[in-house]
Write a structure and sequence with these properties.
This protein is mainly α and 110 residues long. Helices cover 75% and strands 4% of the residues. Strands 1-2 form a two-stranded antiparallel ribbon. A hairpin with a 4-residue loop joins β1 and β2. α1 runs antiparallel to α2 and α1 packs parallel to α4. The chain starts with a helix and ends in a 5-residue tail after the last strand. The C terminus is likely disordered.
């Protein structure tokens, strides 16, 4: 039984690491978009917004696929919560991102 717990821990740790890395990358992308928007360098980028929204949803689905019992059993509850917080911050940043030059707001897309 201990081997199963160790394997779950390794699998979940790797999954959480991938999600954390993806959230950090997405956060960097959103910061760059916000900076470009503030400089007036963005137009209407609906396709990019859709892609970023899909990215956030995918990360959320991956986190939800980890059941609370298996996360607790692997001792990764705190790390899971941190990954959820990182993905939530990206979702909020995506919702408040505004695209100038007629692009309007991306409000409500994440």
């Amino acid at each position: 039984m201990a081997d199963i717990v160790v394997l779950k821990h390794v699998r979940l740790t790797r999954a959480l690491q991938a999600i954390e890395t993806a959230a950090a990358s997405l956060d960097g992308e959103l910061v760059a978009l916000r900076t470009a928007g503030q400089a007036g360098l963005l137009g209407d980028h609906a396709e990019e917004a859709t892609l970023l929204r899909t990215y956030v949803r995918t990360l959320r689905v991956l986190l939800q696929a980890m059941t609370p019992d298996e996360v607790d059993e692997a001792g990764l509850s705190e790390r899971h919560a941190l990954a959820e917080a990182a993905v939530s911050r990206c979702a909020v940043a995506l919702r408040v991102l505004e695209l100038p030059a007629g692009g309007g707001s991306l409000s409500g897309i994440a």
